[in-house]
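Per-record layout

source: Bordetella genomosp. 12
name: Phosphogluconate dehydrogenase
length: 294
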Amino acid sequence: MSTPAPGIAIIGVGEVGPIFAQALGERGCAVAVYDIKLEDSATAGAIRDKAARAGARVADSLQDCLSQADWIFSAVTASQAGAVARAAARVMRPGQIFIDLNSVSPRVKQENGALVEAAGGDYVESAVMAPVPPQGVQVPMLLGGRRARALSEALNALGLRTQAVADEVGLASAIKLCRSIMIKGHEALCLQSMQAALHFGVDGRVLASLAATFPGVGWDKGYEAYLIGRVAEHGQRRSEEMREAAAMLDELGLDAGLASAIADVQQGFAQRGRGWLHALDEKGGLPDWRTLLA
């Protein structure tokens, strides 16, 4: 006899929530979604439309969303991750698993886990290691928590791509944020280097020098356009993640100035580049970045 598909609750109907809702629904799971924006008449319609396209049931409340769920995915902004964990803990029942997809510091994940488990639920942190689009639920995810190994097997059986890395909460997020300092820092360095080089009219020479120093990376094939395009498209979310990385460093007694500066660069350019998203090519790059940055 086959095991029945788990009931799914997804909190947050932004970019990630509908992707997970549609994919899990197509795999036979009953999916309910909830977003605090449903409580605002100005934004409720857009949320309902997203849910309908994903084939998910729109819950009347958070409690309604969680009522039939075995697994609860939290996919909200970093600033709301703690509030969602607190709210969910108040209405969860024993045996439900709260899967925290949010990019927050290890300390915040540990605090969220303590809230959920004190209420009788189970908590598993998930560190999403790459952009969800275009990979969807095949995006690599690292899991941590005492139920992480069993959950990883169950998720992978549904077509997800997860790996349990620890029985305790915090290490998966530490891996992600330590990596993020490198990745997002690389993007910020490229952006500011090209802005300055363009000002002096030496961008071609700088790129040629980078290509000679780091052959095979792609500095002679538009790699800078890809990096700048990533900041233009995702800089706001990346800046929030980097502020969580800064919080992690601060908690360790390390200088968080660099991580905070990376966040500022990412956020500032994202706000400036909102009108440029139409110019991204199929790889997410800005082929005409020189014109846009001039």
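summary: Residues 232 and 274 are 7 Å apart (CA to CA). The chain has two domains: 7-169, 174-293.
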